[in-house]
Design a protein that fits this description.
Layout: H1 6-15, H2 21-35, H3 40-49, H4 54-62, H5 71-84
Helix pairs in contact: 2-5, 3-5
């Protein structure tokens, strides 16, 4: 599996900037620490999560909203783990 090129990674970093500081930190941490080593399916799920509105995404991370099953749930679990660190 090949990782994102520098331009794509920069675009992803920009998309991690949110209206909620808590999400900024969690999303950027996932991008820096896990994204490159993630499966293509998990990378796609992460990009899909970036399309969601902040309240919905935050609700998933804190457990108020159940994420859809599959890779999205896997990425949300990783974000939850990062929140506990």
């Amino acid at each position: 599996m090949t990782g994102p090129d520098a331009a794509e990674f920069g675009r992803l970093r920009w998309r991690c900037r949110r209206g909620m500081r808590e999400l900024d930190v969690l999303l950027t941490r996932y991008l820096d620490e896990r994204y490159r080593g993630a499966t293509a399916e998990d990378q796609e799920a992460f990009r899909a999560l970036l399309n969601r509105q902040d309240p919905e995404l935050y609700g998933m991370v804190v457990g108020r909203i159940e994420p859809p099953p599959g890779p999205v749930a896997s990425v949300v679990a990783a974000l939850r783990g990062a929140a506990e660190d």
